[in-house]
Every structure is written in structure tokens, then in C-alpha cells.
Amino acid sequence: MDTQTLINTGVGIILAGIGWWSRMMWESVQKIEENLHRVEVDIPKSYVSKDDFSKTMKHIEDMFQRIYDKLDDKVDKP
Fold first, then answer.
1. How far apart are CA 69 and CA 63, in angstroms?
2. What confidence score (pLDDT) does residue 77 get?
3. DSSP letters along 21-61, please?
4. What is the number of alpha carbons within 13 Å of residue 1 lying toward its C-beta?
5. C-alpha to C-alpha distance for 66 and 60, rounded to whole angstroms
6. From CA 59, how far away is CA 39, in angstroms rounded?
7. Rounded to the nearest 5 degrees, what angle is found at the Cα of 39, between the Cα atoms of 20 and 57?
8. pLDDT tens track for 7-17
């Protein structure tokens, strides 16, 4: 074998390795993008919206206030 054939074979093997590695990275990025999209779709299903949380907290605060008022009335009675 002459030197040019060895160089061409070596460069070909190196480029094939780089191509394989690039393909693996591309597939990994695609899988990560799919997983990210699934998470973006599932988040609204799993978590309470800010408005719903605020309404619920207001309701709970009102209930506690009523309980405190009743307790104050009980304490004042002889």
C-alpha cells in the first residue's frame, strides 16, 4: 500500500466515526426535545394555576377568620 491509500483510509475511518458520533448526538437531542415537549404538555395538568390557588387560599383565610371570630365570642362569654 502506498502512503496516499493509507491516508485516505485513515481519513475515511475518522470521518465515519465523526459521522456516527454526530448521528448519535442528533438522535439524543431529538429525544430530549420530545421529552421536553411532553413535560410542557403535562405541566398544566399536574399543577394548580395561580388564580385557582389564590381563590382557594382566600376561601381558607375566610374560614379561619370565621373560626377565630367564633373563638373570640366563646372566650368573652362568662
1. 10
2. 66
3. HHHHHHHHHHHHHHHHHHHHHHHHHHS--HHHHHHHHHHHH
4. 8
5. 10
6. 31
7. 160
8. 999 999 999 99
**Amino acid sitting at position 72:** D
Q: What digits encode the pLDDT tens for the residues 40-72?
A: 888 877 788 889 999 999 999 999 999 999 988
Cα Rg, the chain, nearest whole Å: 33
10 vs 18: CA distance, rounded Å: 12
The full length of the chain comes to 78
| pTM more than 0.90 | no
The three three-digit cell numbers of residue 49, written as one number: 394555576
- Specify the amino acid at residue 63: M
